């Protein structure tokens, strides 16, 4: 069974390298998914 987690990160994370950091951590854990900016300056992420 595949597990999935969704996160909404609030605050000003755009232009702070947040998505690159999430990718580095996910790669080190062999986790797939995505992270994208939202219109309010935060990010949404989903991990599988």
Describe the fold and architecture:
By secondary structure, this protein is α+β, with helices and mostly antiparallel strands. It has one domain. It is built from 1 helix and 3 strands; from the N terminus they run βαββ. A 3-stranded antiparallel β-sheet has the order 1-3-2, covered by helices on one side. The protein is flat and about 35 Å long. The protein starts with a strand and ends with a strand. The mean pLDDT is 84.
For this entry, give a set of tags.
single chain, 48 residues, alpha+beta, 3-stranded antiparallel beta sheet, 1 helix, flat
Write the layout of secondary structure elements.
Layout: E1 5-9, H1 18-28, E2 33-37, E3 43-47
Antiparallel strand pairs: 1-3, 2-3
- Sketch the topology as an H/E string, one letter per element: EHEE
Given the C-alpha coordinates, what overall shape results?
Answer: flat
Instruction: Give the low-confidence spans.
Output: none
> Rg to the nearest angstrom?
11 Å
Summarize this structure briefly.
By secondary structure, the chain is α+β, with helices and mostly antiparallel strands.
